[in-house]
Amino acid sequence: MSATSTPATISQAIHVQGLGKRFGSNAVLERVDFSVGRGELVALLGPNGAGKTTLLKILATLIRPSTGTARVGGHDVVSEVERVRAAVGLLAHGSYIYEDLTALENLRFWATLAHAGADRQSLLSALARVELEPVAEERARTFSAGMKRRLALARVLLSSPRVLLLDEPFAGLDQRGKKWLEEFLLAFKGQGGAVLMATHSFGRGLGIADRIAILAGGRIVLDRPRASLEGEELHRLYALHTEDNG
Description:
This protein is an alpha/beta fold. The chain contains 8 helices and 10 strands. Strands 6-7-8-3-9-10 form a 6-stranded mixed beta sheet, with helices on both faces. Strands 2-1-4-5 form a 4-stranded antiparallel beta sheet. It is globular and about 50 Å long. The N and C termini lie far apart (41 Å).
């Protein structure tokens, strides 16, 4: 345990306090406070430009916060970068698939870049987890959008993350792909994993969330259990908060 860790923050998979991020004179995030527990999926709603992707990148240690603190798995995203990266899997909005490589070659290439040293069986196991092992030797350009999304997820799973950071994970998926992803995420959090899913959509992915948080004006303006936001209530509150902070 590091000197700045506390039992409260370690019990949370993600713990953010007073987090801010500025790019020059532009404040993207201001005094963001929230947490995600182990075995919990939180949907982070917000309009385009609200700072959702910036927040995910800070938690993935890709950019540094300007103010405040963020901890993942009890580790600080600034001072314990390698420990955070070992715990986190980031699925960006773009799949970043190499179309002319096979599914297996894509994973081998990513593993090499990450110095993961995964053998063929480990790569095939990752593909099996996303139900792509039967097409391991097929080129990615023949895959549907949903299959490419699953291949990108297989890359994330190579490091056995305990925390998933997802940026618009349901975008571009057909109904079968959405159903598969929902079932996967339910199983992941059922095994104690934590998920933070950023989206600007009110699609079916929200149905598996435990909590829904709204990010607007650089701050978390609403954080409620999903079950308390049934029907039109979520749409009404989203419109109210995003208009007030627009």
